[in-house]
């Protein structure tokens, strides 16, 4: 979808997380606020700015003593490049480098970007790379957290809301869940496995899909009695995702429950 080139059409929501990769440990910062807009047809070009760390730790990650300096450069570069239409969506730290990712219009050239970077890179020799990425693969596949990492974050938000309302999180109650599948047989296979885990009242129905392309999806609604503290809901999410992320190709849309403020 299109948007004014110099403004983010979303509210920023940066999250950081740690992960292991085949190359070693990584820390990732991602603006999850961009996810409903990705990919943006108006911003098909990926810019990768690399800041070689001055004093990385032995595992290649950023030392806490260097954090402020690196983020100061990252922030000023993002601010100075935004008038060109470059929108920062995240960064990745690994192997002694902090790489910053931005998307911009195809009309912006390296001749426009490099002078801005050189003027505001401070003590860092920032590398600049421009590549076509109309599908926002770097954002959606490389920076985006795994389904379980993402759901754990969602669990924290949901439980925090319940706690703020005075919910007795350790009181078991019916917790409802929802998942989507591209084909009916996949939904039926997942339904059988969910039933084996004690989930009940599993209902499968066809629903229209609007994005990424119009079509049909099969939705499963199901529930089970559980407590809703963070640890338990993380366990439940892992149970469900172990089923969905296998050959069933499903997506988990999260959970809900009634507020419980008094012991039954």
Sheet with most strands: strand arrangement: 1-2-4-5-3-6
- Taken from the alpha-carbon principal axes, the silhouette is globular
**Using DSSP, what is the number of strands?**
10
List segments where confidence is low: pLDDT < 50 over at least 5 consecutive residues. 1-5
Q: What is the CATH class name of the largest domain?
A: Alpha Beta
Key terms:
single chain; 264 residues; alpha+beta; Alpha-Beta Plaits; 2 domains; 6-stranded antiparallel sheet; 4-stranded antiparallel sheet; 10 strands; globular; disordered N terminus; DUF695 domain-containing protein; DUF695
Would you kindly provide a written description of the structure presented here, covering whatever features stand out?
- It comes from Corallococcus carmarthensis.
- Residues 154-257 form the Regulator of ribonuclease activity B domain.
- This is DUF695 domain-containing protein.
- Residues 25-143 form the DUF695 domain.
- Pfam families: DUF695 (PF05117), RraB (PF06877).
- The structure is a single chain.
- By secondary structure, the protein is an alpha+beta fold.
- It has two domains: 14-143, Alpha-Beta Plaits, CATH 3.30.70; 147-257, Alpha-Beta Plaits.
- The protein is built from six helices and ten strands.
- The strands form two sheets. A six-stranded antiparallel sheet has the order 1-2-4-5-3-6, with helices on both faces. The protein has a four-stranded antiparallel sheet with strand order 8-9-7-10.
- A hairpin with a 2-residue loop joins strand 1 (14-21) and strand 2 (24-31).
- Helix 1 crosses helix 2 (110-120) and helix 4 (147-164) packs antiparallel against helix 6 (230-244).
- 25% of the residues are buried.
- The model is unreliable at 1-5 (pLDDT under 50).
